[in-house]
Amino acid sequence: MSDHLCKTLQRFLETVWNEGNIDAAPEFIADSYAIRHDPGDPWDGKVLDVEGFKNRLRISRTPFPDQRFDVEEMIPGDHRVAVSWRWRGIHIGDIPGLPATGETISMSGLTIYFFVNDKISGHWQVADRLGVMQQLTAAANG
Question: What is the C-alpha to C-alpha distance for residues 113 and 130, in angstroms, rounded to an integer?
């Protein structure tokens, strides 16, 4: 089962996040998606339905429409998969207080994705958002 979950997660990251195919989200996302821990994420602590998750994707991708997650390692568990990743994108859309800089921004993180009936039902995540803000501020002032 764990190999199946890893393959599902890999397809989700590639199709939905990297390719930006937001309409494919229902194929991967459960009816209820809980963001259990994600400091700095405006959705931290919220439970989203599929439409709410799609809206989160749209908002998250707007400043970095070419963003890409590169998987470093996946560690499967019972009904969950931990994934370490590196992310990058070109900042071409405004973020409140930070106009587009045209600079490539990057960060790394670790996410544990939870599954129910082979669909992703939420995550617990740590990501270097401080590093992102430092890069954005430097680009805006530089």
Answer: 22
